[in-house]
Design a protein that fits this description.
Elements (H helix, E strand, L loop, with lengths): L1 H4 L3 H14 L15 H20 L2 H7 L1 H7 L2 H21 L6 H12 L14 H16 L1 H6 L7 H7 L10 H25 L4 H12 L17 H14 L3 H8 L3 H5 L2 H24 L4 H16 L14 H13 L12 H19 L8 E5 L2 E5 L1 H29 L3 H12 L15 H16 L1 H15 L1
Antiparallel strand pairs: 1-2
Length: 484
């Protein structure tokens, strides 16, 4: 019952989600034809706010008695995070039902895809009212930074740090957690303003600029166009998008160092180095594959490669390519870079570059230990934005356990997609990598005709990917342990 005894964080969380759900109505004055959808957002928002206020208004003793069974389960941090995300996905799915062309499973899929910053869709964005396009991008924007991070800006108790960790934030940039959360949020807003202005300067319409900036920084990839960024056919717009995706995939601690001009310290960060190596290897390989396989110029292949490799590694999902026609060699490389993902402590998904670095370093240290006299145990180090960190056995063990579970999830999801959607193994592997890493690339799978079972499997996969498998497993173990 401890979490509900601490000023009822669940009630405040529901109020916060209700406010976020209402935000899309701000576009109605600019698109008056969208006014008919006001209640699509107002009603679920009101429901969530009232429910949250009800929980907060309960007297302490009555609240504890009323929710004793529920709180005895939810009190653990992992289950709290799972509850928060599941509840938000449910509430945010309700407005999509007012479109009239989606069933509840499709609405849940659209909501989960947005909150988890995956960016997959079953609706045509060019046939979708602007209020729903903003809804999707704003969910991505909030989902990228995380519910818990937004909540700890206004609420802080002894459970806040564990909640912060369970949601995937690995760095405390300031001694105070609340100051860390506020610093990240302010930086996020400033980057949003920068991206919007740059897009407008490049000739993108204002509404598109706002939506695409939110999608790029959150590494979500939901666009206002069917053909994504390719629709604009602008090198400048692609360059701005690349910049925003790179910022989105970079650890917030590193971004803080950049604002302080501590460039020497930034160059030492291990995950930036290995990320640069991934770019140097994958970009020319894919450019060459596109050049040979699509009969285009090498320059055009390089342009496609740079943009889509950055989009894939950052797990954004913006694209300038039709993945259904590119060579299988390029498909394989894209699967690998999607699975790797961006930096820890950023808005991107995937395995994360720091884990990739630690796996290589762990193997290297193991080999050196075996070759050293008397098998003397060697200690390695890696660099984060906060400084030099020792690589111990616990860190290596945690890294390899997570990596095993991550790739196991990828394989299981690929098999499920292969069965439920009746697609080939290459397509299932590609789409599974996209979901597991929350990227949003797709080949021959997601549209308005995708069957409900595939959408359910994909929705669960996206939630597991966003919260990372350890959080889900911990929550399940806590749930069954308590019931036992």
């Amino acid at each position: 019952m401890q979490l509900l005894k601490n000023k009822n964080d669940f009630g405040r969380l529901m109020i916060l989600i209700g406010i976020v759900t209402l935000m899309p109505v701000c576009v109605i004055p600019f698109f008056l034809s969208n006014a008919k959808y006001f209640f699509a957002f107002f009603l679920p928002s009101l429901l969530s706010v009232l429910l949250g206020m009800f929980l907060c208004s309960l007297p302490q003793k009555k609240r504890a008695t009323y929710y004793e069974g529920f709180s005895s389960i939810i009190k653990h941090s992992s289950l709290t995070v799972i509850f928060a995300w599941s509840y938000a996905i449910f509430i945010a799915a309700i407005p999509f039902l007012f479109l009239g062309n989606l069933n509840f499973i499709q609405a849940l899929f659209e909501s989960a895809s947005s909150w988890t910053t995956t960016g997959l869709r079953v609706v045509n964005p060019e046939d979708t009212p602007q209020i729903f396009l903003f809804h999707k991008s704003f969910m991505q924007f909030c989902g990228g930074v995380g519910f818990v991070l937004m909540m700890v800006m206004i609420i802080q108790n002894k459970h806040s740090m564990s909640l912060f960790r369970f949601e995937g934030h690995d760095d405390q940039l300031r001694p105070s957690l609340i100051k860390t959360a506020r610093m990240i949020f302010i930086l996020y807003i400033l980057l949003f303003l920068l991206g919007t202005v740059l897009y407008i300067i490049c000739g993108m319409p204002i509404f598109d600029s706002i939506v695409n900036t939110m999608s790029a920084l959150s590494t979500g990839g939901a666009s206002t166009k069917v053909n994504s960024i390719a629709e604009y056919n602008s090198v400048l717009i692609e360059a701005v998008t690349i910049l925003l995706m790179l910022l989105g995939m970079t650890n917030f601690g590193v971004l803080i160092l950049l604002t302080k001009r501590k460039f020497k310290q930034v160059t030492k960060v291990s995950e930036l180095r290995i990320g640069g190596l991934v770019f140097l290897i994958s970009i020319p390989l894919i450019a060459t594959s596109l050049f040979l396989g699509l009969s285009i110029s090498f320059g055009q292949g390089l342009r496609y490669s740079i943009f889509n490799v950055v989009s894939g590694l950052s797990t954004t999902g913006f694209t300038t390519l039709d993945f259904s026609v590119i060579p299988n060699f390029a498909i394989f490389i894209f699967i690998m870079i999607m699975l790797i993902g961006g930096s820890a402590g950023s808005t991107s998904g995937g395995l994360k570059l720091n884990r990739l670095y630690l796996m290589f370093r762990g193997v290297g240290l193991h080999v050196k230990t075996k070759l050293s006299p008397n098998s003397r145990i060697l200690t390695g180090f890696y660099y984060k934005g906060q400084g030099k960190i020792a690589i111990d056995d616990t860190l290596i063990k945690d890294t390899f356990v997570f990596s095993f579970l991550y790739f196991l999830t990828f394989v299981i999801l690929a098999l499920l997609l292969c069965v439920t959607a009746d697609i080939g193994i290459v397509d299932s592997l590609f789409n599974s990598a996209s979901i597991t890493s929350t990227t949003g690339f797709s080949i021959n799978l997601f549209d308005q005709y995708t069957n409900n079972l595939t959408l359910v499997v994909s929705t669960i996969g996206m939630l597991i990917a966003r919260l990372e498998i350890i959080t889900i497993l911990t929550g399940i173990c806590m749930l069954f342990a308590k019931r036992a």
